[in-house]
Specification:
single chain; HIT family, subunit A; about 150 residues; alpha+beta; about 30% helix; 4 helices
Length: about 150
C-alpha cells in the first residue's frame, strides 16, 4: 500500500529533524478554512504512537507542545485542537490546529459540518502573516530539541 506521508512531505515544511517534520497544511479546503493548521509527521512509517520507543514518544509530544505554544502565543486562538486519528492515512502524525470562534466550524471539529458561512479568506482574520507563525514554530522547536 502506498503511503502519502512516506512519499511526500504532506504540506509546506516548516521544520525538519531526523525524527519528524512539521508542516503547515496549504492545500485543500482545510487550509482555506483553517489557515493555522499544522501537522507533526513522524519520518519513519509507524502506524501507532505506541510503536515508538519511550524517548521518541517524549520527543514527539514535546514537539507537539511547542507547536501549540507558538500558536497560542502568536495567534491567541479560542482553542487549539490536537488530534492523532490516522484512520485514512495510517502513518503516525499529529494535527495541531489553531481554532477561533469566528471559524466556519467552531465549536465543532474541523471534519464536521460547517456551523456558519465565513466571508472572505480566513487567513485575513489572523493577527499576523503565516510566515511569522511558521518562523516561530521553527524557532520553538529549535530551542526545545537542543
Amino acid at each position: 500500500m502506498l503511503c502519502p506521508l512516506c512519499d511526500g512531505d504532506g504540506g509546506l515544511v516548516v521544520a525538519r529533524t531526523p525524527q519528524f517534520r512539521v508542516v503547515r497544511v496549504v492545500d485543500g479546503e482545510e487550509a482555506q478554512r483553517f489557515p493555522a493548521f499544522y501537522r507533526l509527521i513522524w519520518n519513519a512509517h509507524v502506524a501507532e504512537f505506541s510503536d515508538l520507543p519511550v524517548t521518541d514518544r517524549h520527543a514527539c509530544m514535546d514537539a507537539v507542545t511547542e507547536i501549540e505554544r507558538a500558536l497560542r502565543s502568536l495567534l491567541s486562538p479560542t482553542k487549539v485542537n490536537i488530534a492523532s486519528l490516522g484512520n485514512v492515512v495510517p502513518h503516525l502524525h499529529w494535527h495541531v490546529i489553531a481554532r477561533f470562534d469566528w471559524d466556519s466550524h467552531f465549536p465543532a471539529p474541523v471534519w464536521a459540518a460547517p456551523q456558519r458561512e465565513v466571508s472572505g479568506p480566513a487567513v485575513e482574520r489572523l493577527p499576523l502573516p503565516l510566515q511569522r507563525v511558521d518562523d516561530a514554530v521553527l524557532h520553538s522547536l529549535t530551542i526545545a530539541i537542543r
